[in-house]
UniProtKB/TrEMBL annotation:
GO terms for biological process: cobalamin biosynthetic process. It comes from the Bacteria. InterPro entries: Nict_dMeBzImd_PRibTrfase (IPR003200), Nict_dMeBzImd_PRibTrfase_bact (IPR017846), Nict_dMeBzImd_PRibTrfase_N (IPR023195), Nict_dMeBzImd_PRibTrfase_sf (IPR036087). One of its GO terms (molecular function) is nicotinate-nucleotide-dimethylbenzimidazole phosphoribosyltransferase activity. It comes from Parabacteroides chinchillae. This is Nicotinate-nucleotide--dimethylbenzimidazole phosphoribosyltransferase. The gene is cobT. Gene3D superfamilies: 1.10.1610.10, 3.40.50.10210. PANTHER family: NICOTINATE-NUCLEOTIDE--DIMETHYLBENZIMIDAZOLE PHOSPHORIBOSYLTRANSFERASE. Belongs to the CobT family. It catalyses: 5,6-dimethylbenzimidazole + nicotinate beta-D-ribonucleotide = alpha-ribazole 5'-phosphate + nicotinate + H(+). Pathway: Nucleoside biosynthesis; alpha-ribazole biosynthesis; alpha-ribazole from 5,6-dimethylbenzimidazole: step 1/2. The active site is at E313. Its EC number is 2.4.2.21. The lineage of its organism: Bacteria, Pseudomonadati, Bacteroidota, Bacteroidia, Bacteroidales.
Length: 346
C-alpha cells in the first residue's frame, strides 16, 4: 500500500519572510493576496527568494459507470473525443497552458476507448472501460484504488524529476461531477442537494434526475464511511489519481494549483487522508458549479479568481497562474525602503 510522508512547511521562516515583505517599499499589506502567496511559497520552498520552474498541468482522464444513468448532459464518448482534443492542443486548457508556459501531461486512467500509442498520452489504464456504476456496486476495488493512487503519484514524481516545482491538476471524465458530489456530501456532511449541479450543462429537469440518481446511490451505500471507502465506492480513477498526485506533490514540497469543483473535491479527499497537504495548495478560482463555493468554504480556501468558469481540465488553476507569478516577482524584484532610502513610517 502506498504511503505518503508529508511535512507541514516549517514555520520558523515566517518572521524573516514577513520582514522581507514588510520592508518592500509599499504601505504595509498593500499588495494584499500577493503578499500572502509570496509568504506561502517562501514557506513551501523554505527561502526568502522563491522560484517557480517548469509548470505542468497534469490531466487525468477516465470514464464513469454512473454516466449510464443519464446524470450528464454529455454522452460518454465525449471523454475520449476531448482527450483527442488535448492531444491536438485544441481544448480549453490548451490555449491557457500555451499562454502561461505550462506543459500538459495527459494520463489515460481508464478511458473507455483504445488509443493508439501516442507520445503525448501516458497509458495508466486501471480498467479498460472505466469505473463500475456506483448506483449498483462500488465503482472500483481496493486494489484498483491503490493502483490509481500509485500511478497518480508516479506521474508527479516524473514531473518533479524534470525540474517542475509548481503543478496544477486537471481532469476529463463524463460523469465526474456526479462522483465529486458524492465525495463532497459524504466527506463534508453538506446535504446532497447543495452538492449537485449542472455539470457540463444539465437543465433544471436534468439536475433533478441527477439528484434522484445520486440520492438513491447514497441510500444504497453500505460501506464504513471512511475516506478511502468513499473514494473507492463513488470515485473515478482520474479523481483517485489526482488525490495520489496531490499527495505526492506535497511530499515533494511542490506548489499545488487547484482547479474547479472536481479538483477541489479531490483535495478535500486528499486532506482527509493527510491534512498537511493543504498548506501546499493555492486555489485558482471559485467556479459556477453548484457546491464549488461551499466546498471551498468548508476547506477555508480563498480562491484567487471568480470568473464563472465551469470547465475543469485544470483551466481555472492555469488561468490564475500569472497572479502566483506576480507574488513571486514581488518578493524577488521589489526594492526595499532601505535600498531606495524611502522613509519607513511604520
Ligand atoms: C466538450 C466538453 C469538454 C470538457 N472539458 C471538461 N469537461 C468537464 O465536463 C465533465 C463533467 O461534467 P458532467 O459530470 O456533467 O459529465 C468532465 O469531463 C469535466 O472535465 C468537458 C465537458 C464537455 C462536454
Ligand atoms: O468546476 C469544474 O471542475 C467543472 C464544473 C463543471 C463541469 N466540469 C468541471
Amino acid at each position: 500500500m502506498i504511503t505518503f510522508h508529508i511535512e507541514k512547511p516549517d514555520e520558523k521562516l515566517v518572521p524573516e519572510l514577513e520582514d522581507k515583505i514588510n520592508n518592500l517599499a509599499k504601505p504595509k499589506g498593500s499588495l494584499g493576496r500577493l503578499e500572502e502567496i509570496a509568504l506561502q511559497i517562501g514557506l513551501i520552498q523554505q527561502t526568502l527568494s522563491p522560484v517557480l520552474s517548469n509548470p505542468v498541468n497534469v490531466i487525468y482522464a477516465a470514464d464513469h459507470g454512473i454516466a449510464d444513468e443519464g446524470v450528464s448532459q454529455s454522452p460518454k464518448e465525449i471523454t475520449h473525443q476531448v482527450v483527442y482534443n488535448f492531444l491536438n492542443d485544441g481544448a480549453g486548457v490548451c490555449f491557457l497552458a500555451r499562454q502561461h508556459g505550462f506543459n500538459i501531461k495527459i494520463i489515460d486512467a481508464g478511458v473507455d476507448h483504445e488509443f493508439s500509442p501516442n507520445p503525448k498520452l501516458t497509458n495508466k489504464k486501471i480498467r479498460a472501460n472505466g469505473t463500475r456504476n456506483f448506483l449498483h456496486e462500488a465503482a472500483m476495488t481496493t486494489e484498483e484504488m491503490e493502483l490509481a493512487l500509485q500511478y497518480g503519484a508516479d506521474v508527479v514524481t516524473d514531473c518533479y524529476k524534470e525540474g517542475c516545482n509548481v503543478i496544477s491538476f486537471g481532469e476529463m471524465g463524463i460523469g465526474n461531477t456526479s462522483a465529486s458530489s458524492m465525495w463532497m456530501t459524504c466527506l463534508t456532511r453538506i446535504p446532497l442537494i447543495d452538492c449537485v449541479g449542472a455539470g457540463s450543462g444539465l437543465n433544471t429537469e436534468g439536475i433533478k434526475h441527477k439528484y434522484n440518481v445520486l440520492k438513491e446511490a447514497l441510500d444504497n451505500y453500505k460501506g464504513d464511511g471512511s475516506t478511502s471507502d468513499i473514494m473507492r465506492h463513488f470515485g473515478g480513477y482520474e479523481m483517485v489519481m489526482a488525490v495520489g498526485g496531490m499527495l505526492r506533490a506535497a511530499e515533494l514540497k511542490m506548489v499545488i494549483l487547484i482547479d474547479g469543483f472536481i479538483m477541489t473535491n479531490c483535495v478535500l479527499a486528499a486532506s482527509r487522508l493527510h491534512p498537511e497537504v493543504l498548506p501546499y495548495c493555492i486555489f485558482g478560482h471559485c467556479g459556477d458549479e453548484t457546491g464549488h463555493k461551499r466546498v471551498l468554504n468548508f476547506l477555508k480556501a480563498k480562491p484567487l479568481l471568480d470568473l464563472g468558469l465551469r470547465l475543469g481540465e485544470g483551466s481555472g488553476a492555469v488561468c490564475a497562474y500569472p497572479i502566483v507569478q506576480s507574488a513571486v516577482r514581488m518578493i524577488n524584484e521589489m526594492h526595499s525602503f532601505q535600498q531606495e532610502s524611502i522613509t519607513k513610517y511604520f
